[in-house]
Amino acid sequence: MTATVTAPSVGALLRGWRQRRRLSQLDLALDAGVSARHLSFLETGRSRPSREMLLRLAERLEVPLRERNELLLAAGFAPAYGRRALDSPDMAAVTRALDLVLTAYEPYPALVVDRSWELVTANSSVALFLDGVAPHLLEPPANVLRLSLHPEGLAPRIANLPQWRAHVLHRLGREAHLTGDPGLAALHRELSALPGGTDRSTPDGIAVPLRVRAGGEVLSFLSTVTTFGTAVDLTAAELSVEAFLPADERTAEVLRAARSPVANPRLPGG
């Protein structure tokens, strides 16, 4: 016997996103400028949403672009957001912007990842984090979170591994919940099973640092994230640049002294 998988209705998808955002029907209706009764009818299937209504509700619910397309398809509409390959001519401005940002961060490590945390490209300073990493973790598509927490990756060199691991898992778990992405949820389960200790202490200071052993010293970094805030292409919308800036003057001195003239090579996964 073959099991039949029924795709969720557009109403069920809307209800799921509303509940994920912890909004009542009244809260969402007021924010979107519709009646709570009409929203209830949309969720139960008694009314069919227009394309414009779906996009308005998706915007208020902060539904990722990929999942907005799924809502439209479930309602019988064509997707609103396209996906272009990063190396296509239409994406030339995006790749130039990424190269500019990566180069500007030198001599500090910076890398580009997609929504799944797979490495797209990086600047030359990221080589600092790759010393001693097992080759299989760098095979495309290389996942940077797996690379950082895996015992054959960067993890043995992270001086504050339990603290950093807790930060990474919390961030990944939140992204999995907010996006509803089953791939991120599976990655969270995988990384949670890796060794590394648990840090239940209350964070202090300004931000959780990444403290990496290198050359007989411990270098300390704070991470920042940059995204394309107005992107309407799925590829561009799901890219982010994560940079690791020195958290103390000694780290800055070491990185400036080790600066390489080579600019942002494509690493495995690029």
TrEMBL record:
Domain HTH cro/C1-type residue range list: 14-68
Top-level taxon in the UniProt lineage: Bacteria
Molecular-function GO terms, alphabetical: DNA binding
InterPro entries: Cro/C1-type_HTH, Lambda_DNA-bd_dom_sf, MLTR_LBD
Pfam families: HTH_3, MLTR_LBD
SMART domains found in the cross-reference section: HTH_XRE
Protein's name according to its UniProt entry: Transcriptional regulator, XRE family
Species assigned in the record: Geodermatophilus saharensis
